[in-house]
Amino acid sequence: MNDPPAILGGTAVRPEGPPDWPLADPDVEVALQGAVKSGTWGKYDGGCVSQLEAALASFHQSAHVLTCSSGTLAVELALRALRIGAGDEVILSAYDYEPNFLAVHAVGAQPVLVEVAESNWNIDTAHLEHAVSKDTRAIIVSHLHGGMVDMERVTSLARQHDIRVIEDAAQATGAIVQCKRAGTWGDIGVLSFGGSKLLSAGRGGALLTNHSDLHQRLRVLLRRGVQQWAAISELQAAVLLPQLAKLEQRNEMRRAAITRLRDLLGEIPGLRLFSNSVACLPAFYKAGFQFDRHAFGLSREQFVAALRMEGIAVDAGFRAMHVGRAAGRFRCTTELSRANQAHHGAVVLHHPVLLGAEDDLRQVARAVHKVYSNVDRLAGLS
């Protein structure tokens, strides 16, 4: 612990930087070579997309799966398939992925922002009832940064009020919450295959539903004539298939790594990993930390900059949905004090290091302890 942080001229814990993603994977290489050899990569319909949709349906035990060009588009399509529009309200967390908020506006509806839970800064289901009005038509629920939402409570309330549920599992692909796969609790579930996601294809997304009428509406929305206008390619589907086959194993490795990282970090004032109060097996696209600058002794910006100099892939979290926006763009029923904390205090660790060895986890912990033990010196940096 005598070695100063790299930002003060010391030696970085990981001078080579964080692990690459996606991982080098011989099975992905075989899939790419097969797509090239067969000519599948350049076809409108070479069979890989339909194979992927069938594999995702089997993995999630979902009746219907449709792929599309991104998870962001998938959320908007879900809203449109549920016939959400002008005059309608859609409930979502005050701390969420910003495009979900913008998707609600894209269909002409009004976002209703709900306070977040104390333990993981995901939507607090205890506040849902108060957010419902006569105009409420849907709830968007995101599982963020390893935090999981009580979907039994969400879906129970939705049934009571005849509200539809969109479950965004873009950060939680393969996770299980209360004995069901994330993305399968709601009327429509959403996955993402962006370049840094647990299943990576550069871009891409998927929609899951058990409702044949919603499946048909989604198919119509995705088509212009005979072709899908926002499709993933056969090549993307080809590389996703071998990754899906390994997802369960890799998620288990990430969960074990987070348990070990908690032990290695110990108790550090102002820094706490997200935790869950519902029965679940999370998936860690990003591992979320609750950072309190007063208790830790640094600003979040200083903390993130110091860890990045150590070669640790951390970032600030999302902007809260109500911050910097005109009051007329949303409705809320509380002061959103915890969402403000998330806005200022969410820090996320990128997942590839969680697939490493014990030494990789020790490097993360060592970097954090180096920064904390030098708080007084770091606080003086501009």
Task: Walk me through this protein's architecture.
With 382 residues, the protein is of the alpha/beta class. The chain is built from 13 helices and 17 strands. The protein has helices at 26-38, 48-60, 71-81, 98-106, 128-131, 151-161, 212-221, 234-265, 293-296, 300-309, 337-345, 358-373, 375-379; strands at residues 64-68, 89-93, 110-114, 136-142, 164-168, 176-177, 180-181, 188-192, 205-209, 223-224, 227-228, 271-273, 280-281, 286-291, 314-316, 331-332, 346-350. Helix 6 links the parallel strand 4 and strand 5. Helix 1 packs antiparallel against helix 8 (234-265), helix 3 (71-81) packs parallel to helix 4 (98-106) and helix 3 (71-81) packs across helix 7 (212-221).
